[in-house]
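S1.2 Input.
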Amino acid sequence: MSKSIVIGYLAKVSAANVNASHTEGNVVVAKKVTLPDGSTIPYISGQALRRMLRDRLEDLGYPLSEPFAQVSGQEVTPPVRPWEFVDEDLFGYLDPSGGRRRTSPVRVSAAVGLFPFQGDRDLGTRSFERFGQAMEAGGNMFETELYANLFKGTILVELDRVGAFKPLEIGQDAERVLPPDQRRKRLQTLLEALNLLWGGGRTARMLADLSPKFIAYARLKVKHPVFLEALAAHYEDGRYVLELEPLVNALQKFNGYREHVLFGLEPGIFGNEAEIRTTLASYGTVLTVHEALGQAKQDVGGLWSPS
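S1.3 Output.
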């Protein structure tokens, strides 16, 4: 029986600061993590990605729970109706009283840049002249760290927990389980949300498309983020080159647990596109990203069906 679906993906950012850290003086700093050699790479937090996925689910027609939460000071009490609100089902919640808590069945890694941060900055200004003052009055200047990078991320979904709510999660005496068609639809909409992913900060002037340019999709007999450390790339002759050895190793390592595998590859992104298609064809169908996610939605459509 399938226990999880796992998606490893690569997203390309040409020039942006999707998820800032804090402000140092007049500089908006990008979130970064330090490598053992002392260099730094940018990342987009899992919290930010979950927010983007929530927003896309709302775009796709699902009402979110947040407008129905009760706010008292710093405490936010969710409605705790996961059978009604997809975000409570997929992303969990916490009742501050401690009585009801749901751990997210959708596990999201940070999206981590594959290349070091180069220290680039965008300069912004606001002239007081535009507000009716003399040019000599000057204005405000600020800087924003930005990067061009390829980000890797992983999403793991615990299939047995989607649309299934234990008594302690909902404060009731018995478990509540949604009908199979509703569980399947929620998963399919999550996949569509990934296909439409965008968001983050500074989108008014640094809009970024975070929809994947490469995906590896697997339905597994176990729960494991098989692709989390399996995606790597280098830059060669003006193109990204996907390194296939770690990905193939991960696929072979979990050979006995793989039930279905798909790959999505956007044309024109990777310099070794032909090699990617030839190598990965031995493990699953290689399509464009939107075609692969469409096939993944069909694959999810077979879950919880009578044998």
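S1.4 Remarks. The chain is about 20% helix and 35% strand.
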